[in-house]
Automatic annotation (TrEMBL):
It comes from Gracilibacillus salitolerans. NCBIfam families: PRK09283.1. CDD domains: ALAD_PBGS (cd00384). InterPro entries: ALAD (IPR001731), ALAD_AS (IPR030656), Aldolase_TIM (IPR013785). This is Delta-aminolevulinic acid dehydratase. Belongs to the ALAD family. Pathway: Porphyrin-containing compound metabolism; protoporphyrin-IX biosynthesis; coproporphyrinogen-III from 5-aminolevulinate: step 1/4. One of its GO terms (cellular component) is cytosol.
Amino acid sequence: MTKAQFDRHRRLRNSSVMRRFVRETDLKVDDLVYPLFVVEGENIKNEVSSMPGVFQVSLDHLDDEIDELLSLGIPSILLFGVPTEKDEVGSGAYDRNGIVQLAIRQIKQKTDQLLVVADTCLCEYTSHGHCGVIENQDVDNDKSLPLHVKTAVMQAEAGADIIAPSNMMDGFVSNIRQGLDEAGFKHIPIMSYAVKYASAFYGPFRDAAESTPQFGDRKTYQMDPANRLEAMREAASDIEEGADFLIVKPALSYMDIIREVKNQHPVPVVAYNVSGEYAMVKAASLKGWIDEQAIVLEKLTAMKRAGADIIITYFAKDVAKWLQNK
């Protein structure tokens, strides 16, 4: 009887050194962006109930957060503001002394070793929780754009290194690019939330940012999770309008989209490992049902394998500690 012929794939898996030697994808601390929520007020450090280990912090606690991130070698943060006062047009977002602008200035006075990415949206600042101006119970695209431009310019003026518009208005990248250029900020890149789905994975974030819509939902401006071609159109529009980075949000259920965006556009692709993805793993870990470290490192490595160059994740501090101790 002739012996069966087959390939010996296991030769390249026979020791930890061999597996490390042939590994195709590496997760690094330099890949990570940590989302940070700053709130108005004093002596506030509130743990978000649906996101264990994630806090809202006031400015008097901000330096401690920054010191921890620097000590862990995390190179970047994504800033969200939580104001005490809100109004119909989200004026706190583009106030020169709004909470995010104050936080940016404080961070920049402290260090030049941390890239500050400013989330550019109105939903945390509007009384209705939507991302723009409301007309006839919906967000008016063109009336909202000037407010997003004002917000981006104020953030850049405060010292933001990168503007990250997340509002999903049509034309938001071209309008913000033009506004930044005219204000003297041609050097500031735009990290566009190009592919942002109307996802059920955002619930815990809305607890943290206090931005739950007071009526309806965001399905007229965020994307249908069933659509792939629409994602390619959105990404192509943003590149044409001047985006320097493309975000895919959420990440874990949209690996196919991350790969396709990466294949079509030679710019850094950013995966947003969102709050619901974080909360599910944390909840299961607290129950003792999973190995949190193994699960998190596997899923973030998978995001990089899918094509992500950068990962925004609430696990950034944990991952940095794990990678330092491996």
